[in-house]
Amino acid sequence: MTHVLLPVAALARRADLAAVIGAALAAKAAGAGHRRIALALGRPAETVRGWLRRFAGRLEAVRGVFTVWLRALDPDPVMPDPGADAWADAVIAITAATAAAARRFVLEVSPWEVAAAVSGGRLLAPGWPG
Q: Is the separation of the CB atoms in 116 and 8 below 8 Å?
C-alpha cells in the first residue's frame, strides 16, 4: 500500500485546489449553474458538473459534520441561520466551522482548506462522510 500526504489545499484525486472547487460549490449555493461557474473558473463544464453532482449527494451529511465541528471548536457557538436551501446550509456550516477555528486558534485559513482538512482530503471522495 502506498501512502501520499496531501497538502491541506488539495483534495484527493482532484487536479484542482480545494479553493477552486470550493468556489464552485459556493457559487452553486448562491444559485449559479454549472456552465456559468465553469466559465468563471476557467474549467471544463463537465468537470464542474462532476464536482457539483458529487457534493449534491452529501449536502446534509456535510452540514452535519461541520456543525459538529463548529460546536467542538467554539465553547459557546452561535448556530448559523438556515440558508435558502440544502446547498446554502452546507456551505454556511463549512464557513461557520472555519470562523470558529480561526477564533480559537487565531489563524487565517480558507473555508475550503478547513473542509479539506476535516475531510482528510476526501470532501468529494466516495464514502465520505462515513
A: yes
* Grid-cell match 460549490, residue found: 25
SS3 category, 32 = coil
pLDDT at 41 over 90: yes
The single-letter DSSP state of residue 123 is T
Cell numbers 466516495 label which residue? 126
Are the CB atoms for 57 and 106 separated by under 8 Å? no
Give bridge partners of residue 10 from the DSSP assignment. 17
| Entry pTM | 0.91
Residues belonging to the chain: 130
Q: Which residues, including other chains, have CB under 8 Å from residue 32's CB and lie 6 or more apart?
A: 40
Alpha carbon 34 to its chain's center: 16
Residue tagged 475531510 (cell numbers): 119
pLDDT of 5 above 80: no
- Residue 113 identity: E
Can you tell me which residue has the cell 487565531?
106
Beta strands in 6-127 (DSSP E): none
What's the DSSP call for residue 119? T
